[in-house]
Design a protein that fits this description.
It is built from 5 helices and 15 strands. The chain has helices at about 15-30, 45-55, 125-140, 190-195, 245-250; strands spanning about 5-10, 35-40, 65-70, 80-85, 90-95, 105-110, 150, 165, 170-175, 180-185, 200-205, 210, 225-230, 235-240, 255-260. Strands 8, 9, 10, 11, 12, 13, 14 and 15 form an 8-stranded antiparallel beta sheet that branches. A 7-stranded mixed beta sheet has the order 2-1-3-5-4-6-7, with helices on both faces. The longest helix has 14 residues, at about 125-140. The mean pLDDT is about 95.
Length: about 260
């Protein structure tokens, strides 16, 4: 199987940055298979990138290299790192973007061996000069020990977690997708563990109270706002054939409360 490298950035598609990264990778590993996960992360939104990585990485072959460049601290004191976790490689800035894939078994290395970087390192484009070449060398069979020293203190985000108070779950919107669907931090496993009838819930968001969940978007009435367990296996609030974020005038961080429907 050809080695796989995925790219996740906040670069957008109007500028040449993503293409340049691909050029660097292909110069080192011409047989690699490149996959654009997304380049539409909100600028500098480290949490959003961390959630995207968490959702996407398990669907790739083991040994895939996942490169993430959402890097507001580029050129500063933050470290470039490489990680081996769950059978995958992760390469990017040490700013918490890999929080969801780091556990006690993960091996984390600060990237310091400059012979594997491009010759002239810009203070504004480590995606090109450090992360792309390192990912290519990993795809060619190098191990993380070749790139620097092992570290035990990677930066970890304080991810928002839902709370159960005995009768209800308090969570929040953590991601808004292209369609305006509102992904929450309340997963299906928690709902099933807490409520006797997880198929019959009441969700409070803003001034709206919603009943559900439905089993498909089409099950909701036209132009209705509803709730569903989505492909992330989490509670999602949607607007059928519309945009829930706009309809409800909410965004990331908006509180969500779930109770058992009577």
């Amino acid at each position: 199987m050809r080695p796989v490298i995925t790219l996740t950035t906040d670069f957008g598609l109007n500028d040449p940055y993503v293409g340049i990264m691909k050029g660097v990778i292909l110069n080192i590993a011409p047989d690699v298979q490149l996959v654009d996960l997304t380049h539409q992360i909100q600028p500098q939104n480290i949490l959003q990138a961390a959630l995207v990585v968490k959702t996407a990485y398990p669907y790739f072959p083991k040994g895939t290299v996942h490169v993430v460049v959402v890097d507001p601290g580029v050129g500063g004191v933050r470290r470039p790192i490489g990680i081996r976790s769950y059978g995958y490689w992760f390469v990017g800035p040490d700013n918490g973007v890999f929080t969801s894939v780091i556990d006690s078994q993960a091996n984390c290395y600060e990237l310091t061996t400059e012979k594997y970087f491009l010759k002239d390192i810009s203070t504004t484009f480590h995606g090109r000069d450090i992360f792309s070449p390192v990912s290519a060398w990993l795809a060619r069979g190098k191990t993380l020990r070749a790139f620097g020293r092992k570290i035990a203190d990677p930066v970890m985000l304080d991810l928002p977690l839902p709370k159960f108070d005995g009768t209800s779950i308090a969570g929040q919107v953590i991601y808004v997708d292209h369609f305006g669907n509102l992904m929450t931090n309340i997963d299906a496993g928690l709902l099933e563990g807490v409520f006797e009838r997880p198929e019959s819930l009441e969700v409070q968001i803003g001034r709206r109270t919603l009943q559900g969940p439905v089993s498909s978007y089409s099950e909701a009435p036209e132009d209705a706002v509803g709730i569903i367990i989505n492909s992330w296996n989490a509670l999602e609030i949607f607007h059928r054939e519309g945009n829930a974020a706009q309809k409800l005038k909410v965004t990331v961080g908006t509180p969500v409360r779930v109770t058992q429907a009577e």
